[in-house]
Amino acid sequence: MNCTPTRTPLMATLVLLFSLFAGFAHAEPVTININTADIETLASLDGIGQSKAEAIVAYRDANGPFQSSDELANVKGIGERTVEKNAERMTVE
Is residue 48 in some structural domain? Predict the structure, then answer.
């Protein structure tokens, strides 16, 4: 076989990168229970940062658990668009 030493590591790197990207493409998004999630987990939602996550926890503490993820729009600073963007990632249990 006529493989030069520089081509083998390159091919191995390309195969590894392809494998990693293929794995990410099939990864399922993590579902977050907005009634039990901590601030850090809530902040991982699209459009929700640290302060909005803190507002969610404060709202939840003051008003009890959410009956549906749509109620998240009742939290100051969180609009319906943010709820829609995260609908598939949120649950209430």
Answer: yes
Q: pLDDT of 5-26, one tens digit each?
A: 556 777 777 777 766 666 655 5
Based on the structure, what is the number of domains in the chain? 1
Identify whether 59 is part of a domain. yes
**Tell me, what CATH number does 87's domain have?**
1.10.150.280
Q: What is the pTM of this model?
A: 0.70
In angstroms, rounded to a whole number, what is the distance separating the alpha carbons of residues 51 and 43?
Answer: 8
48 neighbors 39 (Cβ within 8 angstroms)? no
| Phi–psi pair at 8, nearest 5 degrees | -65, -50
Residue 83, C-beta contacts closer than 8 angstroms, at least 6 positions apart: 69, 70, 72, 73, 90
Q: What domain range is 68 assigned to?
A: 32-91
Could you tell me if 89 and 32 are in contact, meaning their C-beta atoms sit under 8 angstroms apart? yes
| Residue 29: alpha-carbon gap to chain centroid | 6
